[in-house]
Amino acid sequence: MKIKGQGKKNKFKLGWKDIFLYGFLFLFLLFLSFGLGDFAAPSKTQTTIPLSQVINDVKSKKVKEIVVNEAKLDVIYSDNRKVMSRKEVGASMYTILSDAKVDPSSVKITIKDSTGFNTWVGVLTTFLPVLIIIGFFYFIFKQARGAQENIFSFGSNKAKAFNKIFPKTTFAQVAGVDEAKQELSEIVDFLKHPEKYAAMGARTPKGVLLVGPSGTGKTLLARAVAGEAKVAFFSIAGSEFMEMLVGVGAARVRDLFSNAKKAQPAIIFIDEVDAIGRQRGSSMMGGHDEREQTLNQILVEMDGFTPTEQLVVIAATNRPDILDSALIRPGRFDRRVLISYPDLQGRNAILKIHAEGKPFDKDVNWENVARRTVGFTGADLENMLNEAAILAARGDKKSIGKEEIEEAATKVKMGAENKRLQTDEDKKITAYHESGHAVVSYAMPNADPVHRISIVGRGMSLGHTLIPPRFDRVHQTKTRLLEQIATMLGGRVAEELIFKDITTGASDDIEKATDVARTMVVEFGMSNLGPVNYHFEPSIYSENAPVSQNMQNAIDKEVKRILDEAYKRAVFALKENHKKLDEVAKRLLEIETLEGEEFEKIMKGTKKVIKKLPLKN
Hints:
By secondary structure, the chain is α/β, with parallel strands linked by helices. 47% of the residues lie in helices and 10% in strands. It has helices spanning 16-33, 51-59, 93-99, 115-152, 178-192, 194-199, 218-229, 248-262, 290-303, 344-355, 366-372, 378-394, 402-414, 424-443, 478-488, 490-499, 507-522, 549-576, 578-591, 596-603, and strands spanning 47-48, 63-69, 72-77, 82-86, 108-111, 160-162, 207-211, 232-237, 266-271, 311-317, 335-338, 452-454, 464-466, 593-595. The strands form three sheets. It has a six-stranded mixed β-sheet with strand order 6-8-9-10-7-11, with helices on both faces. Strands 1-4-3-2-5 form a five-stranded mixed β-sheet, with helices on one face. It has a three-stranded antiparallel β-sheet with strand order 13-12-14.
């Protein structure tokens, strides 16, 4: 396994195929440079005469020079005319002229020695075909061996390995998860000073399970642990163990743990462990399922650790409820570290970390930005600041201002602006729809303040009303949930009240309102059915549901009752504030986007008349 950070790879690679090709070209050029043309067929423009005529021309003193090249004769006449003739191989030109009673000194005879060249030609013509055949078979066998290695390399793990220098991530680069950092700092201390724990007879956790929503920093925390401990770090996703061949996943697990043990102290990080850690027995393929075999091998490897091994497994998931109980029992994943959404202080710290290296206006208040971004994960905040930087660069600005941050925050949650072509009627419907949400929310005594109303399309929506929480809440009350449902239905109520008709624009609002109402009934016990949990996951493997048909009908009736009551509250609120609804909609049609401060001015003096409507249980 190659370790990152141990020098740069040479990009220039010369294979046997290239060597064979370049060698052949070199030999071909060598033949040409040494005059292979001498052995070629005579040129059609050069005259060939018999040897007897050459002797007669020498006797007549017409020949100036004879160039002898083995059996070939190049005859040059006094008028510089060149002809060609041939003699017997091995016969001397001097002897031939003397036997013909011709003085050899009467003509210049030049002997051209090609012995060395002929020797090379003989060697090459003898061995070159053999070398070509050997090279051909070598190439074939090499290709076959490579294919064989690829088949048997399925069992090699695909983990990305980092040496003790990499990664350079430390706890200082992680914010908003102070409790998780405290838990993991003990793992770092164990990897740095294992003898301290061995002296006390303490057993350090073999595995740590990081649980939390996507984007909250689980992978970043694992890298920070490796960076703090300065140990080898092996990172792999759960899906990378899986292959179409049964048994390959288990082989990769064995290979991964073998490499990690050789590099210990080390950390193995398995991202999205739920891909292979699901509860066994839920598959139609039974015990021979590839995923279950892979899980079984992980269980064996983790339970096979000895107390002296400095090897820690860190896994991350956002679905802890589906993990096999044998995987998360003590002795394997001993610790479960919960990583939730960052609070106000956490978001403030995260923003300052990601703000480094970016120029911001001096009037940017990070505490206000943190309050604006309730519900954002660390990944959302990093993406928001990056989008703000892009917006500032697009506008040729020297620094990032509050406007870019606000636009980026909206873009991260709802998508980029999409100014679709709408008719005046569509714009009016959208304006009243969004105004309905805002006015109903304002009429609710426990609702959060409206932050922004807009009829500019984003993503698939034609408009939006932003009502972020004023602060981080741990609990949600029944009253607040009912008010949220009424606010969600305010857009549909406004359409029906103003246009005496309804549109398809409220489909997403109705879906969300129904989800909240159903959750109140089946999970939170906030209905006439009492504090009973009726929630269950439908399964194709189970014929009998844990809830009877009569109870399912009762649940549906309770959900509809809650939605009907919320709809009545929204109708009551908008009828009592009809003029305010018109004012907000009119202003939206003028400027398209209405900020919370201006909305508050329009709604100033409005009474919270919603209390007049009794809240039925």
